[in-house]
Amino acid sequence: MSNIESYEIEMPPECSICLEDLGRHNLWKCKQCNNKFHKKCIIKWKKANPHYPEYFECPVCKLQYKNYCYNNCILRLIYRLMPIIIVFLLLVFIGDIIMVSCLVYNTYVKRH
Ligand SMILES: [Zn+2]
Ligand SMILES: [Zn+2]
After folding, report:
1. Rounded to 5 degrees, what are φ and ψ at 101?
2. Distance 85 CA to ligand 1 centre (A)
3. What is the pLDDT of residues 28-79, one digit of tens each?
4. What phi and psi values does residue 37 have, to the nearest 5 degrees?
5. Are the CB atoms for 38 and 17 separated by under 8 Å?
6. CA 41 to CA 38: how far, in whole Å?
7. How far away, in angstroms, is 70 Cα from ligand 2 center?
8. For residue 36, how far is its CA from the centre of ligand 2 (angstroms)?
9. Strand, coil or helix: what is 100?
10. What's the gap in Å between 22 CA and the centre of ligand 2?
11. Residue 9, Cβ neighbours under 10 Å: how many?
12. Interatomic CA distance for residues 28 and 88, integer angstroms
């Protein structure tokens, strides 16, 4: 067992996706198996994953990672809430119109 571990440590660090040497920059590291990959490779891997864009699995240990795409999520949230927002704005608008018309009516009635 200790032999296997030392063998793994002596292996030159390479990306398990493209099998090329890992540079020092733009790496993605799996928090479970500690394997490192090029960020560009993990992005390709994510998109090739059948579960994309919800989540992807580590190429080595299959640990599932959720994709946090804040911009898309916020846009989707706005799209989903759009009918509610429109109805709310309409209600506020209609309420304003009623209030204003009441004020106008009251001042009109008081003056005459
Ligand atoms: Zn790579
Ligand atoms: Zn992993």
Report:
1. -65, -35
2. 45
3. 999 999 999 999 999 999 889 888 878 889 999 999 988 766 566 777 888 8
4. -135, 155
5. yes
6. 5
7. 23
8. 9
9. helix
10. 16
11. 7
12. 44
